[in-house]
Amino acid sequence: MEHHVLQAIARLARTYTGPEEATSVMERASKSRFVLLGEASHGTSEFYTDRVAWSKQLITDHKFRFIAVEGDWPSCYTLNRYVKGYSNTGDDVRDALQDFVRWPSWMWANREIAELAQWLRSYNADKADAEKVGFYGLDMYSLWESLDEIMKYLESKPGSDLEAAKRAFECFEPHGRDEQRYGVSASLYGEGCHGEVVDLLRTLQNKWKEVGQDDREKALSAEMNALAVQGAEAYYSTMIRHDAESWNIRDRHMVEALAKLMAFHGNEARAIVWEHNTHIGDARWTDMAEEGMVNVGQLLREKYNEEVFAIGYGTYQGTVVAGRSWGAPLSEMKVPKAISNSWEELLHRSGAEDKILLFDKRAKELDEVTLGHRAIGVVYHPERERGNYVPTVISKRYDAFIYFDQTHALTPLSKMVVHP
């Protein structure tokens, strides 16, 4: 098996220096409607900087319309307003990153994202609002923040119907902004706010179609916040009982949020999606399928087929930012050498340089090979490394794979120096 895989890697892999040299992969990706860019951790600089490079080229050369990420809508929308140069957003990218306060804040409040934001702001500077490239969050952890944003939006609109928002706010208020407390109440005692959330979303749905150009994105933001509240309510109501189902609710929500953004940007819009490999790599080609779990990559492929192009990422060893437990202070940790006979270890054994693999017809012989593929979360214990590997058919999970032999921790906001 090892010899077979090493032979295939030798035939498929090309030395990787960046997307500008990966012309065959870029050609395939640029023809897609959705380009999904993964990461093997949320704390590795190379994954972020490389996705920045791919995103810049897809935007400038192939007119992709927005970047959507595994982040909360309200905080990402603040950054979106900054990169589009909207009023009252200031000139300091640090200010635009201050709303990323939810743990793990380093996922988006870091030097790598700051540099992307500054580039997007410059790129958008001479464009009409309707042509500016956006930066949006697809996730749904922002229950309370999204409710706050909806109330602020409706209170700023004379004559708006506040009743649905007030009912939803009053329903959630007794839980003291504690998601776990709400989940227990809704799941075990049937004291949830599902009806109020549905009414709220119905009140705000598609209102962006009815307003002028200046207010379209504000109305979209209100709807996306309502969608986030709906997703969060379902997620916290379910996670107490069903791990697989709560995962599925989250990934289905992100796909629905992405569909809303596509509708807003028009029939010809194309999107770049940044998420962890566990979300963008097709779940059907991992052990997630056996547990009844789906993910963004699978759902998009099932709906859009060849219009989806997924690029996974991996590393052999290095350093990473993560926490020792949920909510713990961030720490720079060592990423040990990949375990024997994992995808990462075989890629290293085939030659200790960065590589890119395009999984076309020449990769068919890998379609029956299942090996461990490293996935590092925001909570990480390097000493328990063997548990971080997902059984994966890599040539089916992704359309292409980028491998960095040595990687380094990203730079969180607290350590960041921004150069204008």
Explain what the structure shows.
The chain has 420 residues and is an alpha/beta fold. The protein folds into 2 domains: 221 residues, EreA/ChaN-like  fold (3-Layer(aba) Sandwich), CATH 3.40.1660.10; 128 residues. Helix content is 44%, strand content 15%. It is built from 16 helices and 11 strands. Strands 1, 2, 3, 4, 5, 6, 7, 8 and 11 form a 9-stranded mixed sheet that branches. Strands 9-10 form a two-stranded antiparallel sheet. Strand 6 and strand 7 form a beta hairpin. The protein starts with a helix and ends in a 13-residue tail after the last strand. The model has no long low-confidence stretch (mean pLDDT 94).
Radius of gyration, taken over Cα atoms and rounded to an integer in Å: 21 Å
Distance between the termini: 51 Å
Q: Percent helix among the residues?
A: 40-55%
Overall geometry:
globular
CATH superfamily of the largest domain: EreA-like (biosynthetic domain)
Unreliably modeled segments: none
Task: Find the count of extended strands (DSSP E, 2+ residues).
Answer: 11
H/E series: HEHEHEHHHEHHHHHHEHHEEHEEEHE
Structural class: alpha/beta
In percent, how much strand structure appears in the residues? Answer: 15-25%
Average the pLDDT over all residues and give the rounded result.
94
CATH domain topology of the largest domain:
EreA/ChaN-like  fold
Topology:
Blueprint: H1 2-12, E1 14-15, H2 23-30, E2 34-37, H3 45-62, E3 66-72, H4 73-83, H5 93-96, H6 111-124, E4 134-139, H7 143-155, H8 163-172, H9 179-189, H10 194-204, H11 213-239, H12 243-265, E5 271-274, H13 277-280, H14 296-304, E6 308-322, E7 331-335, H15 343-349, E8 355-358, E9 371-374, E10 389-392, H16 394-397, E11 400-407
Parallel strand pairs: 2-5, 2-6, 3-4, 3-5, 6-11
Antiparallel strand pairs: 1-8, 6-7, 8-11, 9-10
